[in-house]
Amino acid sequence: MMPSQRITLVDTLSDRSAAPAVVDQVLLLPDLPRHSGWRAINGVILLDKPVGVTSNSALQWVRRLLAAEKGGHTGTLDPFATGVLPLCLGEATKFSADLLNADKTYEATLRFGQKTDTADLTGAIIEETAALPSMATLDAIRPQFMGEISQIPPMYSALKRDGQPLYKLARQGVNIERAPRQIIIHELDWLGFKENDDGQVIQATLQVRCSKGTYVRTLAEDLAQAAGSLAHLIALRRTQVGAVTLQGCVTPIALHQGVASLNQPLSVAALQAVGLMQPVDFLVQNLPIVALSEAQALRCRHGNPCLAEAGQSLPAAGQCRLVFEGRFLGVAEITETEKTLKIQPTRLVSAENF
Q1: I need a labelling partner for 319 at 20 to 30 A (CA). Which of 7, 36, 105, 289 fits?
Q2: Active site positions, annotated
Q3: If residue 183 lies in a helix (H) or strand (E), which one and from where to where?
Q4: How far apart are CA 68 and CA 88, in angstroms?
């Protein structure tokens, strides 16, 4: 039996006088034995982050599990949120930027009638109202929040002011003015409602597909305000980042069990064979592949441009993946010259992987 612990969300966020929100489930994050040393692990882990764990804690746990010397994630999820969290290890970190900027899809559950200082269930209740919306009202306000809209980031966020994260200032009771930012809501649909005996909505579930930089907690508050009420999030699940969906994501428990079933020492090939890890170029799989000749590969591996060769099939322009003898070399930009096409490497895997 793997060790378990009960998660108190407020412990991961701040010191507050309000009673902490305790998760009703038991979260299993197995303790990991010490390893003999870090090693180069190159690939992508598609993690289904559990509730009560910070994104960085999840990343560091995976790094310890695999003894991976380098890693990063592709966009922070709040501790109380769950869902898609792609983790890049080793060389894959070089290709995470596109996913950081990608659209994201969430399912969010709002509780009406109360506002908290964090806009979610981990915070202290700071305002209450008896005014609750109807389903008709919530349907009517939905078009106001479609397309490009303005949003003021919350104080409990990782944004910085003079080098200080806003959430640290918020914990000190400091509230500073934040400039509104433009975000894009591509899709916004109510998935379900929970009503009281008077037909008023006390809880609702929302699906939203939005641009980078969108705070769903703030969106929930703004929706409630437009409906003449107050609200905060009691659940948030990220279901998609770019082209990455929950399908194919693995929970920490399943990852731990899968790794334990493999022969030691672990190899990237073994992890990929059982579906626990994706290849280095997974996050740029939408880019067309350009197969290089030996001469072209030799130039590109040093960051030098090369020209298209006779009979070589290339996209007209734009980004592409460079491959030599089936091995991924990196990403390049193709541009037109007066007579031919030029291949300019922009991000390459390290030389030992050629």
Answers
A1: 105
A2: 78
A3: strand 181-195
A4: 10
Please name the residue that has the structure tokens 């441009």.
Answer: 305
Cβ 105 vs Cβ 83: under 8 Å: no
Q: Rounded to whole angstroms, how far apart are CA atoms 292 and 300? A: 9
Q: What is the homologous superfamily of the domain 287-353 according to CATH? A: PUA domain (2.30.130.10)
The position carrying tokens 């399912």 is 107
- Mode of pairing for the β-strands spanning 164-165 and 125-128: unpaired
* pLDDT tens column, 208-262: 999 999 999 999 999 999 999 999 999 999 999 999 999 989 999 999 999 999 9
157 and 171 Cβ atoms separated by less than 8 Å = no
Domain ranges of the chain: 5-102+244-282, 104-238, 287-353
Fold of 104-238: Pseudouridine synthase (3.30.2350)
Q: The whole model's pTM is what?
A: 0.86
The amino acid present at 7, given as its one-letter code, is: I
pLDDT in tens, 82-98: 999 999 999 999 998 88
Per-residue b or e along 78-99, where b marks 16 or more CB atoms closer than 10 Å to that residue's CB: bbbbbbbbbbbbbbbbbbbeeb
Q: What is the pLDDT of residues 127-168, one digit of tens each?
A: 999 999 999 999 999 999 999 999 998 877 777 787 787 778
Question: Quick one: tokens of 196?
Answer: 């009281």
Do the bridges between strand 181-195 and strand 43-49 make them parallel or antiparallel, or are there none, so unpaired?
unpaired
